[in-house]
Amino acid sequence: MKKLILFVLCLSSLILISCSKKDDEKIIFDNAQPLALAPDVSWAVVTDPYAAYREEYNWQSTVKGHCRKGDILQVLGRSLDSNNESWYLFEDGWLPSNCITVYSNRYKAKSVSDSLLGNN
What is the DSSP-derived secondary structure letter of residue 98? Predict the structure, then answer.
């Protein structure tokens, strides 16, 4: 009987300790990018050391500029070339899917970018 009472007391103590109120955690979002969590906006992270923006979505198209590993870009469009390869449109031009990874929000993209650049 004493063992049962001791067990109940210990169990009660554990339950009361685990139910204690914890300080409220505040989650603060960076409002610098208002589209960071927009459900219809995708974000890409460049995974190649360097990638060339193209004027059109094919390899023979003129190079318009360059980006580098870890850059975070807002996806503006997507298309398939004649070889069924996916290309993504960004502010500076088109990039093939093999040099980027696409994410559903900017916070995920930022986390991956930081990881690629060793900013953890």
Answer: G
For residue 28, give every residue at least 6 positions away whose Cβ sits within 8 Å of its Cβ, in sequence order, or none: none
Using alpha carbons, list the distances in angstroms from residue 91 to 22, 50, 65, 85, 108: 45, 17, 11, 20, 20
Q: Is 70 left (phi over 0), alpha (psi -120 to 50) or beta?
A: left
Do 58 and 112 form a contact (C-beta atoms < 8 A)?
Answer: no
**Could you tell me the two tokens for 42?**
């995708």
Nearest-angstrom CA–CA distance, 77 and 73: 12
Nearest to 109 by CA among 41, 25, 31, 27: 41
Q: Which residue has the tokens 């060339």?
A: 52
Per-residue pLDDT of 67-87, as tens digits, reads: 999 999 999 999 999 899 999
Coil, helix or strand at residue 24:
coil
Cβ proximity of 54 and 64 under 8 Å: yes
- The pTM (predicted TM-score) of the whole model is 0.72
Q: Which residues pair with 110 in a beta bridge?
A: none
